[in-house]
UniProtKB/TrEMBL annotation:
Residues 69-96 form a coiled coil. It comes from Salinisphaera japonica YTM-1. Belongs to the FtsB family. Residues 1-15 have a biased composition (Basic and acidic residues). This is Cell division protein FtsB. InterPro entries: Cell_div_FtsB, FtsL/DivIC. Keywords: Cell cycle, Cell division, Cell inner membrane, Cell membrane, Coiled coil, Membrane, Transmembrane, Transmembrane helix. The chain crosses the membrane at residues 32-54.
């Protein structure tokens, strides 16, 4: 509206001669609608943030799954190497008598006829014990 008069001035004067109409207040105030919309947007944002950091499919859950995957990969690698070693041993046992004979000697203590078997027993005192020292005539107590 223009205060100093202008094209609307005559119209306003004509309107003032008529009884003033009361404008009905809008059902929902625009400010209230804006506040409700703002609160809803904030709640949606917080809900999405919760899912991102804590909920299903979050960064924390993804990290746990990756750590478990790495642990399983290491366990699989160890099992694979053990299985490869066992398969090599099975192939060696199937291939010839030398491996079977060596295994029988190591695990069961088998001896061929005409051989002499010597069993060595470790010292019972253990490796921490020191051998006795010979005394020389110059040592004093």
């Amino acid at each position: 509206m223009v205060r100093d008069g202008g094209p609307d001035r005559g119209k306003r004067e004509a309107d003032s001669s008529q009884p003033a109409k009361t404008q009905s207040a809008p059902l929902i105030d625009r400010r209230l609608l804006f506040r409700v919309a703002l609160v809803l947007l904030i709640l949606v944002f917080l809900g999405l943030q919760y899912r991102l950091w804590v909920g299903e499919g979050s960064y924390a859950e993804r990290h746990r799954i990756e750590m478990r995957r790495d642990a399983l990969a290491q366990a699989n690698a160890k099992a694979r190497s053990r299985n490869d070693a066992m398969q090599a041993e099975v192939d060696d046992l199937k291939a010839g008598d030398g491996a079977a004979e060596a295994r029988a000697r190591e695990e069961m203590g088998m001896v061929k006829s005409g051989e002499t078997f010597f069993l060595t027993v470790p010292d019972e005192t253990g490796s921490s014990a020191q051998p006795a020292r010979k005394r020389s005539p110059t040592d004093d107590d």
